[in-house]
Design a protein that fits this description.
The protein is α+β, with helices and mostly antiparallel strands. It has 2 helices and 14 strands.
Amino acid sequence: MNNHIKALKSCLAALALAGSALSSQAQVDVTVDPGASWQGYMNVFELPSNGGAYVFGSPWGTGDLVANFSGPVLTLSPNTIGDPNPFWYTPSGGPGAAGNKIMEANMYVQNDGGWAGQTVSFSGTVLANSFTSAHSTVAFIRDFAPDFSSFNVTSIALGGPGDFTISLATINDPARHVQYGFTTTGVNVWVTDVGSFGNLQVTAIPEPSTFAVAGLGLAALLVLRRRR
């Protein structure tokens, strides 16, 4: 009996030491939270067949990207410019028209200075991905210089259903800006044709249920009883 108590105390001491070590690493955990302050930024490029040059970039509303939450689920879709001008479509906008630009839609949350010198971890789960080869999405964390002239980045391409987690150790400078989110890249699509190009749905990784946690505790108690 005494040996079991000593072993249990040793395990608890080891867990406490490990917990202390982990807490000293200052990690920030973020996920796909509809309540977060999401922003949008669009970069526009010429088609590769037209040279692929950068055209412009500017802040856009998240709905204009197109990126929308329905409850906890974020749906990322091809961009649908409503302007029929040949700048955007060939020969001009309308059902069946071909998009004339590559749209890099950035859906992100930004923290200014608050995560300096910490490790940011971004996780989520892809529920479905029906994008064709015309579009792709990556999850990213970016650590920008104070003037946004440069950044460190980690990213992962999102494919079929499943969880993802990425982490980035940020520079310890409170003037820097850290962003996490998604970039969806592909040709713009006339709104009536968007269905055939697919979309991607992503949400937070579900938390373990109360019953599952309780089950783990019960299993631990049974192990202790068997050892007595």
